[in-house]
Each structure stands twice: as structure tokens, then as C-alpha cells.
Write a structure and sequence with these properties.
The protein is α/β, with parallel strands linked by helices. It has helices at 17-26, 49-55, 73-82, 97-106, 153-170, 187-193, 202-205, 210-220; strands at residues 4-7, 32-37, 63-68, 86-89, 110-115, 133-137, 175-179, 197-200. It is built from 8 helices and 8 strands; from the N terminus they run βαβαβαβαββαβαβαα. Strand 7, helix 6 (187-193) and strand 8 form a beta-alpha-beta unit. Helix 2 (49-55) packs parallel to helix 3 and helix 5 crosses helix 6. The protein is globular and about 45 Å long. The protein starts with a strand and ends with a helix.
Amino acid sequence: MKHRIAPSILSADFARLGEEVRAVEAAGADLIHFDVMDNHYVPNLTVGPLVCAALRPHVKLPLDVHLMVKPVDRLVTEFAKAGASIISFHPEASEHVDRTIALIKEHGCKAGLVLNPATPLSCLDYTLEKLDLVLLMSVNPGFGGQQFILSVLPKIAEARKRIDAASRNTGKDIWLEVDGGIKVDNIAQAARAGADTFVAGSAIFGSKDYAATIRSMREKLI
């Protein structure tokens, strides 16, 4: 299984974001993760499509945009135009989940569905084979720097079984991403449960050596 590490700019130095994303790309990151919050669906306010468009020329890595916004469809269009590669959203934030997935794909992006810790995997029953990514939150969304919720581990394992079955049926490569409290000392737990893509914010941007931290994470995944 290929593993991917996605530093979240939520924990970066916002005064020098261009420098920060170039630094994590040079340090060995696989994706750049955007946590987009609207102070409505979640109690925080972060970045919009203008920031995405401004950073797009700074890195060649895919931009992994996680929309924690409601309503979601208009921002799908705006982030696709701004250079997003992957756009994920929460089913609770869409009036018509299937239509939002289709909208993301119509704009040339990969589509992901995000499940909060208490959101059941049954949300995948009629959507999984249309998705490119399932993102499981291992914290409740809204703030960086939270502790990993251990009860999400069996949920990751069950999602892995569903994804493997869907991949056998369709031949699609569907990623299983986990976001929230991922650090060097617990990334292996999430990987053993079945995750292949790991969002890490403060664990990377809060460290003195981004390359050393990413390297340590990869060593735990061997």
C-alpha cells in the first residue's frame, strides 16, 4: 500500500505561506492539505479560494481541499477554479450529496466525502464507488492541535474493508485519509487500521525540522 503524507496549512505560519508550502514540498510531502472553515458549519474561519489560487504557483504537489462549509456547492466551483486537485466535503453540508460529488468531478477534481467521528459509515452506502477519497476525521472538525480520538481506529478498519470491496468491483483506487491529531507516535496505529493518507498539521509545522518529522513518520509506516 502506498502511503501519503499531507501537511495541513492550518498549522503553518500564515505570514509566509508561500515559503511554508515550498518547505514541506522540499521536505518530502505528498500533498498540501487545505482546511477550509466558514464559522458556520464549524466554529472557526480560515482560508478561501483566493489563498488557494495564490499558493497554486508555489508547489507542484496536489492541493487537497477539505471543505468544512455549508452550503458547499458554490465553493466547490471556486476552489476548482483556484487550482484544487481534490475536493472533499461533509455530507451534512450538502443538500444533495450525489449532486455535489458530480459537481466536483465536472470541474476536473477528484471527489472525497468526509465523515466526522460520529458520522456513520452508512453515508458511503450509495456513494463509495463514485468517490476517489474517503476522509475520516479523528477529531471533531473546527480547530487544529486536537488529540486523536482512539475510537476512530475501528471505524478506519471498517472503512478499509468497504473500500477494498469497492475497488475490487470497480478497479478504482480509492484513498482512505485520516485527519486529526496525527503525529509521529500514532501514525502507525492509523496505518495498521487501514489508512493510507495522513493529514498532519501541528506535528509537522510545529516541528523545527519538517524533513526530519516527515521522514520519522515514513519510518513508522514501514
